[in-house]
Write a structure and sequence with these properties.
InterPro entries: Arc_rbn_hlx_hlx. It comes from Shewanella mangrovisoli. The protein has five helices and no strands. The protein has 113 residues and is an all-alpha fold. The longest helix has 15 residues, at 98-112.
């Protein structure tokens, strides 16, 4: 037995039987922008899609409890994913001059210690 045999299998979706009339009616509702009468859950992509995942790499960082709570607050307030927020902040910091970067670093040292 290999390790791939140990992967979790996704549970199979139960296929609901639908009459032709209900199918047509639901298609008409979809075309008109109305809600579905069949209540069939649509599969929404979770996380990154295959095309965009190629440009990202997983990383692990150690943060203080304060930093984590600040990041959580920012994410909730702005409705932006934490990883995207970090990419934005890194980009902003990298576009500063060396002098501006040093000021930010020194300011953060005072706040941490």
């Amino acid at each position: 037995m290999s390790l791939t045999d140990l992967k979790r299998k996704k549970p199979k979706q139960v296929i609901k039987s639908v009459s032709v009339d209900d199918f047509i009616e639901d298609a008409n509702n979809y075309a008109l922008g109305k809600a579905s009468i069949l209540n069939i859950p649509t599969a929404e992509p979770k996380g990154l899609d295959k095309k965009s995942a190629k440009i990202y790499r997983h990383a692990t960082f150690t943060l203080t409890e304060t930093s984590i709570s600040q990041l959580d607050g920012l994410a909730k307030e702005t409705k932006i994913a934490k990883s995207r927020l970090l990419r934005i902040l890194i980009d902003e910091f990298s576009h500063r001059t060396a002098e501006e970067q040093l000021k930010v670093v020194n300011k953060s040292k005072k706040n941490e210690g």
